[in-house]
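Quick illustration, no need to memorize.
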Amino acid sequence: MKEYSVYLFDADGTLFDTAELIYQCFVYSCKKYGNRHITRKEVFDSIGLTLRTQFERYLGPMEQERYDQIQADHMDYQMSIYTKYLHAFPGVVETLAGLKSHDKKLGVVTSRKIKSLSVYLRETDMYDFFDILVTPDETKKHKPDAEPVLKALFMLGAQKEKAVYVGDSAYDIECGNNAGVDTVFVNWSHTNGDLLQTAPTFRIDSMEELCP
């Protein structure tokens, strides 16, 4: 695989496995606020989108006040149960350490909010590897728009041709491609890589494949 100066990563489904955690939280919130049953497929297909976009998919358009109420309860619930489900994918911590030992710049570009992202990165011993964290608070537009990756490049002072974005969903690959950087799709995703409408530059079966 090609070597880069900058490695940008999605978080959920790429660095750590939170799919079941995310699903359980939407089961809770959709039942409480919409009295509806949500399927794993519905949730897994939307991982990578912002929380508001997901809620409006499941519960319909809503005013800011209602969204704020649901979002706060949803995240309180998530933070109360995450230790039952959260774990790093195999080889991730070792690969991040290896990239840093080769003086690579590392960043996270995610749709997850900074509060839970910081907790989960620390819980999985990853936090200190990253130079920057780009969350929805930093951009007006979100994945699959290019803005989150472009924001990361700006923050790192990096050139597009020297950067790669690693992700597990169609939204990640589209975001990276729209930003003009190479992309890597991880084959441990819940997304079927054969159904991607936008092709990644590379596909990997293990995180160690990123190491120089």
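The domain at 19-84 is CATH 1.10.150.240 (DNA polymerase; domain 1).
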